[in-house]
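Mods, move this if it's the wrong board.
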Amino acid sequence: MGSMKDERKTTGWAARDPSGVLSPYTFTLRNTGAEDVLIKVIFCGICHTDIHQIKNELGMSNYPMVPGHEVVGEVVEVGPEVTKFAVGDCVGVGCLVGCCGSCRPCNAEVEQYCNKKIWSYNDVYIDGRPTQGGFAGSMIVHQKFVVKIPEGMSPEQVAPLLCAGVTVYSPLNHFGLKGSGLKGGIHGLGGVGHMGVLIAKAMGHHMTVISSSNKKKEEALDVLGVDDYLISSDVGKMQELADSFDYIIDTVPVHHPLEPSLSLLKLDGKLIITGVINQPLQFVSPLLMIGRKSITGTFIGSMKETQEMLEFCKEKGVRSAIEVVKMDYVNTAMERLAKNDVRYRFVVDVAGSNLENE
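Not the wrong board. Structure tokens:
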């Protein structure tokens, strides 16, 4: 490899317009600095947020856009001031690649709440070059936003942990919900939801999946090991379980009523919103007031929490349920994900897709 100051190009798959169709795209990586790490991408998970972004569903997309923010790769070169990583390390990159470093959230090590955070893609880095994500052969990332993958963890299994995993670990950590014996619920059994079940069960929680249908009931009980499966339209069962949950993590990424989940919470219970929804949600206030319940939300997790979560998953043997695909299948994968037709996370074999030869 050349000097870290050399200009480099790589090939990824990018969306060019709100159709969201991805196709090969060669681009120049951003300028590098003394604390930057050059990463060869090995695997990258597909998140529902990728669909929002490539289709401009949030009204803030810039094209061409290379998505992907659940990146696992190998360090191939480091800048002269990099102290955390060495060539050959297996590392991960999540949703962020930059922050201001001086605001209250940054000083509190919760940089995901920095108003000047820089997204892994569909953003602009400090040198003015657009950020591009992990559906590409290489990335250059500041060492602060890179995490070490614990030895022995499968890189393809790790990918969903870098967004979906930390998205559920962070609220459990922040709100003091890591202790064993709690009763929790996961609303929506998709990529984030399945990680929520696995991580919370590893913490010793009694877990219930809340869903609008029973199509995932057998797998939730037999494969993921949930303790109960609740269909939100089952009035009798909903009434039976009212006022019994310590928390519910709501991962549903489309508009839906909040009242059913609120009715399930016990005194001081928390409804934690993690799904990205671009329409206003509604609820009636007495459901909060009578029970001192709260609706809150958290956003991904900090770099510190991400590293902690990886160590926890290594210790507890938490393994995500994935379907590995090549890059030429990515458009089909996006269509299937939009229909919730995946158990439970697509992971792209980037290194095995010969991107540099496109």
